[in-house]
Amino acid sequence: MYNLLKGKKGIIFGALDDKSIAWKTAERAHEEGAKFVLTNAPVALRLGTINELAEKTGSQVIPADATSIMDLEHLVDESMKILGGKIDFVLHSIGMSINVRRGNHYTHQDYNFTKKGWDVSALSFHRLMSVLYQRDAMNEWGSIVALTYMAAQRVFPDYNDMADNKAYLESVARSFGYFFGRDKKVRVNTISQSPTPTTAGSGVKGFDGFMNYAEKMSPLGNATALECADYTISMFSDLTKKVTLQNLFHDGGFSNMGISTEVMDMFMNQSQDKTEEGLPKEKSKKKK
142 with 80: CB under 8 angstroms? Predict the structure, then answer.
């Protein structure tokens, strides 16, 4: 450990169970000397095991619905009381799509579900930063990070309306990040993580295909939840004080790849197999 966050205070959203990136980030923040409050929606708290994490890290849990200004105001006020001062870092690691859960195709959404997913996954980030900004709750050179995915830039058909939510989330980070940086000297960034087998992420149709394809395309392979936590810790630390308004790809190089030799070989082998299947038996035997 490097004591990168010694003396720092924070709020971590979204730790559901030990598979989640927020959970791993909380563990790493604790190891690096930080104190923080854990929070999630009341329903998520009932479904997860966050109390185990709180006990392990000496943290308190404050339920908060991220779609409620009143809940967020209470969360921020109570966090400053518990932690004894302003906040140095915040992780926004929450998102959901009811359309994905219900199997609604992107071309035939239930728009009430769409609005709810957008509210939870994306507008909540603006709402959270608004509360932090209005209450002057962040210390100078503090850091706010939200987790995203590159479906905000490229088409992943089964990611559905979550792609739109992530695109909005990234835009909010840039736009609000300008004001937070100019007025409060606080940096705001998003981390675009590899597909990661969290409880929430695994619910996306074709997720195993996402994972395998990204693994074969990325020169360094997929980034794990723990590796994402490490990167997030670096963004909370004073080592990245001038990094802001960025969408930071943490994906083993996937985001800059066109095609890898491994994926190309797969298609070449498939093409060869199809050619051989189409040959007359005599010619096929001679070729063998």
Answer: no
> Cα–Cα distance between 212 and 190 in angstroms, integer?
24
SS (H, E, C) 33-94: CCEEEEECCHHHHHHCCHHHHHHHHCCEECCCCCCCHHHHHHHHHHHHHHHCCCEEEEEECC
Q: Is residue 94 part of a domain?
A: yes
For 147, phi and psi rounded to 5 degrees?
-95, 140
Provide the CATH number for the domain around residue 100.
3.40.50.720
Assess if residue 139 is contained within a domain.
yes
Same domain, 139 and 281: no
Cβ pair 120, 94 in contact under 8 A: yes
Domain boundaries, position 49: 9-257
| Unique residue bearing structure tokens 């308004």 | 245
| pLDDT at res. 284 | 47
- Same-domain status, 207 and 272: no
Distance CA 61, CA 50 (A): 8
What is the tens place of the pLDDT at every residue in 153-202?
A: 999 999 999 999 999 999 999 999 999 999 999 999 999 999 998 776 66
Mean pLDDT of all residues in 20-45? 96
User: CB of 206 within 8 A of CB of 188?
Assistant: no
In this predicted model, what pLDDT tens digit does every residue of 118-128 receive, in sequence order? 999 999 999 99
Q: How far apart are CA 85 and CA 139, in angstroms?
A: 9
Of the candidates 212, 166, 196, 254, the one whose C-alpha atom is nearest the C-alpha of residue 22 is 196
End-to-end CA distance of the chain: 58
Per the structure, the count of domains in the chain is 2
For the residues of 245-275, what is the DSSP string, one character each? S-EEEESTTGGG-S--HHHHHHHHHHHHHHH
